[in-house]
Design goal:
128 residues; mainly beta; AOC barrel-like; elongated; SO1590-like_sf; DUF3224 domain-containing protein
């Protein structure tokens, strides 16, 4: 049975490398999570910038903190987009990435972050 974690995320640092003629760029970010998920994430993301100003992204994020009443770390695999400044992504827990009390973590979820604001995050998870 899945448990749902709901919370907020805030980008503290966003460091982007300039893209090239292929419209690809890379960025890294530090995100802070509050709510059912408390902690800090280090995100590495690759973006494709479409001619219409939108973007598609894939990334990996290592999160250290507390999920519910368990502490440890885990990795999320992201697939997302940016449209009209709104960042949206679906993600899943990378199997085998949970450490300490988060060993065996499985799950998936999504987040939405309007430009310049905190985002909302939802993670449905279980252990097994």
């Amino acid at each position: 049975m899945n448990t749902r974690a709901i919370g907020l995320l805030e980008v503290e640092d966003w460091i982007a490398e300039a893209g090239d003629e292929t419209a690809l760029s890379r960025a890294c970010a530090t995100q802070v999570f509050r709510g059912d998920l408390e902690g800090e994430g280090r995100l590495e993301v690759l973006l494709f910038h479409h001619p219409d100003g939108t973007a598609s992204s894939v990334g990996l994020e290592h999160i250290v903190g507390r999920l519910g009443n368990r502490e440890g770390s885990f990795v999320l695999e992201h697939s997302g987009s940016v449209e009209d400044g709104v960042t949206k992504a679906n993600f899943s827990v990378v199997p085998g990435s949970g450490t300490h009390e988060l060993d065996g973590l499985r799950g998936s979820g999504w987040f939405v972050r309007p430009p310049g604001q905190r985002g909302s995050i939802t993670l449905d998870y279980h252990f097994g």
